[in-house]
Specification:
Blueprint (H helix, E strand, L loop, with lengths): L5 H27 L20 H11 L10 H23 L21 E9 L6 H4 L13 E9 L4 E5 L5 H7 L4 E3 L9 E3 H18 L9 E6 L1 H16 L7 E6 L7 H10 L3 E6 L11 E2 L2 E2 L5 E5 L6 H5 L1 H9 L8 E3 L2 E2 L2
Parallel strand pairs: 3-6, 6-7, 7-8, 8-11
Antiparallel strand pairs: 1-2, 2-3, 4-5, 9-10, 12-13
């Protein structure tokens, strides 16, 4: 199998950074177009103009999200954040090697703690060719054009102790477009209390991921913990997957624990309440030097977005937008156990 070159990883990072910049600019433009007032203090207030900090805090208090019944597990978080990196490497390897089968054991970041796990599947789908590719062929970016029409989006592992389901972050042009499709639509449930969610995340999950997941879920032992994890876009998909499993596989429900890293907001307050009641053992880990977890803004036009999961924070300021978001910054912090459950406003200052 071919190895991932430093050039490939740098180019992947370039597109991640470009996508983050585009998303940030998009949300700024959306809000500045109808700016009315500004009251922006605190660690979770980003690009808010029509809603004040006090109003945001009131929304959070009124929802009263259910807190985890199980403590945050630092050792599992160390494993899960590394698995998220493997999911990205899995995707990149798949672009270069048409014969690659999605196995993670030979990827550069594979680690010995996974030797006790069996990989039961690799999520993959038919890749949609981008309109940008003819332009790439005329530039130094032509090497980015994939050699295969299959793309990998994550994997499932099982052992005698745990089940692990992992989703990677944004890589494909269609996924960047989905990130910006922020209109809220009804969550696909028969329960009228399920609320509304981000249309782009909805489309990505229900158009492919759900089917892959349901096909394999019977292979998991429902008597042991089931960890669902993801980074960035993968964190949003992890939220939808954890909820889907809780709704449709009652024998697995009590075992679900969701960990995500730099996740965007997924749905409105009604959805957040619906989610937390069903999947209370959820944890989101954020680098407060990273801006992506502040998107979509709490208020965007007439839509309200609210995070789910108990928040764990740290600051790893690399000095640039993209590295602050990359998994390396998260892995270093989690390995050193510096994440805390109180939101940080600045080094040494904590939000009450």
């Amino acid at each position: 199998m071919t190895k991932l070159s430093r050039r490939q990883l740098l180019l992947a990072g370039f597109f991640t950074g470009a996508g983050i910049s585009i998303a940030t600019s998009y949300f700024r433009d959306q809000i500045n177009s109808n700016k009315s007032s500004q009251d922006e203090e605190g660690s979770e207030i980003a690009y808010e103009t029509k809603i004040s900090e006090s109003e945001i805090r009131q929304i959070k208090r009124s929802v009263n999200l259910k807190q985890p019944l199980i403590p945050y597990n630092r050792q599992m978080s160390k494993i899960l954040v590394r698995c998220c990196r493997l999911a990205t490497e899995q995707y990149l390897r798949g672009l270069e090697d048409p014969e690659y089968d999605g196995a993670i054991a030979n990827l550069p970041s594979y680690f010995s703690q996974l030797n006790d796990y069996e990989q039961i599947t690799a999520f993959r789908a038919i890749r949609q060719r981008s309109w940008l590719e003819p332009l790439f062929k005329k530039t130094m970016l032509r090497d980015l054009i994939p050699k295969t029409d299959l793309i990998y989006a994550g994997f499932i592992l099982k052992s005698s102790a745990n089940n692990i389901i992992v989703f990677r972050g944004t890589q494909e042009p269609e996924e960047w477009i989905a990130n910006l499709n922020v209109q809220q639509i009804d969550y696909q449930s028969n329960n009228p209390q399920a609320g509304k969610i981000h249309q782009g995340f909805n489309n990505l999950y229900f158009s492919g991921v759900q089917q892959w997941l349901h096909q394999e879920i019977e292979q998991l032992n429902p008597a042991i913990p089931c960890y669902v994890a993801g980074h960035s876009l993968g964190g949003a998909i992890a939220v939808l997957a954890a909820l889907d499993l809780g709704l449709n596989f009652s024998n697995l429900r009590e075992q679900i624990q969701m960990y995500n890293y730099a996740p965007p907001r997924v749905g409105n307050p009604t959805f957040a309440k619906f989610y937390s009641d069903l999947v209370p053992n959820s944890y989101r880990v954020v680098n407060q030097a990273d801006s992506t977890w502040l998107l979509p803004p709490t208020q965007l036009d007439n839509a309200i977005y609210l995070h789910v999961g108990q928040r764990w924070s740290f600051i790893n300021q690399t000095g640039d937008l993209n590295p602050n978001h990359q998994l390396a910054a998260y892995q270093v912090a989690i390995d050193n156990e510096v994440e805390i459950s109180r939101p940080i406003i600045a080094p040494g200052v904590f939000q009450r």
